[in-house]
Amino acid sequence: MKIVVIGSSGGHLTELLRLSDMLQQHETIVVTYDLGRVVHPTQYNLPIPPFTPMRILRTCWMTLQLLRKEKPDVILSTGAELAIPAFLLSRILRIKTIFLETVTRFKTPTLSGRICYYLSDVFLVQQPELLDVYGPRAKYEGAVL
Questions:
Q1: Which stretch of DSSP H or E encloses residue 60?
Q2: Sequence-separated (6 or more) residues with CB below 8 Å from residue 9
Q3: Which of 20, 42, 106, 122 shows a CA-CA span of 20 to 30 A to 145?
């Protein structure tokens, strides 16, 4: 199975990389921001956060090209901004998605979580308190990290 792990640098990416033992048995591709650090042998770096309309379009285009080239079976993310265009494009390309809400959220959802809740095939929370916040599609299987 080919898995694209996508997350913004910092805590989101650190959480995803902590799953590396589980992901080790699959072909894994890491997608994050271009900060000049290599964290994985198979890694794509996208431009720094897309806060302007042109950067958003550029990031979406680059993500589309990446997904078409790599043809992953699944996209896995803990979020921030990079997850949203990837999950939107996954709908068009019919790629399965898994969103794992960050372990640091106990009572309030993240913005990327609120958006990806509707775009993901599997939506997991790591705190049972978030089940009431998100709704019936959210699942709690225990703290993953």
A1: helix 53-70
A2: 32, 33, 35, 37
A3: 42
Strands 43-46 and 74-79: unpaired
Judge whether residue 121 has pLDDT over 80. yes
Which pLDDT does position 68 carry in this prediction?
A: 95
Note if the pTM is more than 0.90: no
Euclidean distance between CA atoms 128 and 68, whole angstroms? 36
Q: What angle do CA 76, 78, 80 make, to 5 degrees?
A: 115
Give the model's confidence band at 124: pLDDT under 50 very low, under 70 low, under 90 confident, else very high: very high
**How deeply is 80 buried, as exposed, middle or buried, from its count of CB atoms within 10 A (0-12, 13-18, 19+)?**
buried
127: burial class by Cβ within 10 Å (0-12, 13-18, 19+)?
middle
Report the C-alpha gap between 34 and 100 in whole angstroms: 22
Q: Tell me the C-alpha distance between 11 and 63, whole Å.
A: 21
All structural domains of the chain, each given as residue ranges with its CATH number in brackets, are: 2-140 (3.40.50.2000)
- The mean of the pLDDT values for the chain is 86
